[in-house]
Amino acid sequence: MNMATKDLPIEEARDRRLAGQPLTSAENCPITACRDRDHFEDTIANTNIPPFYASAIYGFCKTFADVRYASPEAHLRLNIVVASL
């Protein structure tokens, strides 16, 4: 690590990055030695994990038409539809 920027305050590091100035020079090191370091460039995986299309986000989607007649007195049963792209 470049000792001149080892203890660089976060505000100054942010200002340098926003101004397009590099924080340090790049160096290769094992992943186990990368704690408390910043990535110099994007890291790209060799394979997809899992090795198929999968969403990292799961959720529910309903429209007003689905629930327009719902009220505390008139409960609705909503169907769950599983979809995957």
Give structural notes:
With 85 residues, the chain is an all-alpha fold. Helix content is 15%, strand content 0%. It is built from 2 helices and no strands. The protein starts with 9 loop residues before the first helix and ends in an 18-residue tail after the last helix. The model has no long low-confidence stretch (mean pLDDT 75).
Structure classification: mainly alpha
Helix content: 10-25%
Return the string of H and E elements: HH
| Span of the ends, CA to CA | 44 Å
- Mean pLDDT, to the nearest integer, reads 75
Number of helices: 2
SSE topology sketch:
Blueprint: H1 10-18, H2 64-67
Task: Kindly list the characteristics that best describe this protein.
mainly alpha, elongated, 85 residues
Structure, briefly:
With 85 residues, the protein is mainly α. It is built from 2 helices and no strands. It has helices spanning 10-18, 64-67.
